[in-house]
Amino acid sequence: MLFPEQPQWLEVEQGWLYYDPKFMLPNEANELFQSLHNQLPWEQRAIKMYGRSVMQPRLHVLCGTHAYRYSGITLEPLPWPALIQPIKERVESIAQQSFNTALINLYRDGQDHMGWHSDDEKSLGDSPIIASLSLGASRRFILKHKQTKQKIEYILEDGALLVMAGDLQAHWQHCIPKTTKVSQPRINLTFRSVIG
Fold first, then answer.
1. Smallest Cα–Cα separation from 192: which of 63, 13, 106, 78?
2. With CB atoms 3.0 to 4.6 Å apart as the test, which of 16, 45, 173, 179 could cross-link to 165 if both were Cys?
3. Which contacts of 6-14 are long-range, i.e. CB under 8 A and separated by 24 or more positions?
4. Tens-place pLDDT, residues 158-195
5. Is residue 72 packed enough to be buried (19+ CB in 10 Å), middle (13-18) or exposed (0-12)?
């Protein structure tokens, strides 16, 4: 699929996507990456997959005002870091949605990954909007329609913003696959609104 050069909303089957590969300038993105990488208390937890407990193949931190539960674990949020607040407001302006949490993931290298899933937990409500800001190493991001198996792929580069909206989470899955081609870390801020 070809994507327009100018950032804009793109209608896909049963959903909407917004992609801006240059949402943040390189120096701005690098400064935020370094600050988050050095200052956040990263942790790794065991989650339940197919009835067994496995360690998540990445590190994470939850920031915001609401706890978030998924894959059998509950994350308690840290207060919003001051350096994230202006970025959050810029993202909210594009998404036309206020966000009360950000699940921040650290992929240490290409072996850290995210399997196929949808962000469709009940605590996110109907038709949740998920905004994803990428910092650091570029990684493949693949979406797959649950019925038609149509795939859409992005290379999420340093400073790129991807917003998933509409009924996308109900009808599509997405993943960050493993790769031997990436040896550098990537940080991904996924802004969301948790209900309750």
1. 63
2. 16
3. 7/161, 9/165, 12/143, 12/152, 12/168, 12/172, 13/145, 13/148, 13/150, 13/171, 14/145, 14/166, 14/167, 14/168, 14/170, 14/171, 14/172
4. 999 999 999 999 999 999 999 999 999 999 999 999 99
5. exposed
> Residue 62: what residue type?
L
Q: Which of 73, 70, 122, 124 is nearest to 97 (CA)?
A: 124
Backbone torsions φ then ψ of 171, nearest 5 degrees: -120, -10
What is the C-alpha separation between 93 and 177, in angstroms, rounded? 30
Number of residues in the chain: 196
Taking 70 as the pLDDT cut, the residues of the chain under it are 1-6, 49
Calpha distance 139→109 (Å, rounded)? 10
